[in-house]
Amino acid sequence: MLALSAEGILPKVDYAIFADTGWEPAAVYKHLDRLETEIARSAGIPVLRVSSGNIRDDALDPNHRFASMPLYILNQDGKQGMTRRQCTGEYKIKPIKKKVRELLGYPYPQRIPKDVLVEQWIGISTDEFHRAKDADVRYMKNVHPLIEMGWSRSDCTRYLASLGLADTPKSSCLGCPFHGNAQWRHIRDTSPEEWQDVVEFDAAIRKGNARANATGNKLLGQAFLHRSRVPLSEAPIDHVTAAERAALQDELTDVYELEHGVAGGCSPWACRGEVDAPAQDDFGLTS
Ligand code: SF4
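^ thats the input. predicted complex w/ iron/sulfur cluster below
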């Protein structure tokens, strides 16, 4: 959308905002720099980077409140669960809203007058139109230009390739539990340091986030990044196991999703909702 706007195919936007969780793959930060210098700057579109902190550091810091990631839980009785996803709201939606208010001249907690409205573009293509949602605040109106143009995902990739951006990486936290096997393999096979990083993180959250443990709200089961609920370093990321295939019958998911990740993953205002097992309120509330 930024390129379409910069090229004049779509109207010129006032700003492009990137919500940084602090734990994107290096390729994403590199790509963002490229977008900024090669596309946005010459078109006069400021790229604003906003952040609520570093999600990886926060999860491991006993002194920091942590908005939980959607982790796969194995309870003591063998039942499976998931922790509620709060991270998209905390690390993406919150800093974007904060910046928008600031740009409008009404930083929180100031009241925004009724006639002040910002148009917010969300890059959802026609194949995922069901993810298009309205904003949850009166001063924002969500607009979906790709859907209005009738563009599918392949139209987008063709367009990006025509700009020399065929290698556009997918944005998400390096250790997002919504990754499918293909994404985990990609990290393992192309970036040993990043693989080491996610394997270490996976081991570090086995007993839940540091804050919950420090405050006595212990997780009574175990938490994992991979849906198989085994340590990431041993998880079956090269193939779908028979157990996973059998479990599909009870879940709103399919083999495609196991390979490519949760459809929609982590997009502000376009969440897909919970993944498989019922969400648990938070760490420590399970038995
Ligand atoms: S990418 Fe995953 S871990 Fe990161 S904020 Fe989104 S849902 Fe949470």
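The chain has one domain: 2-280.
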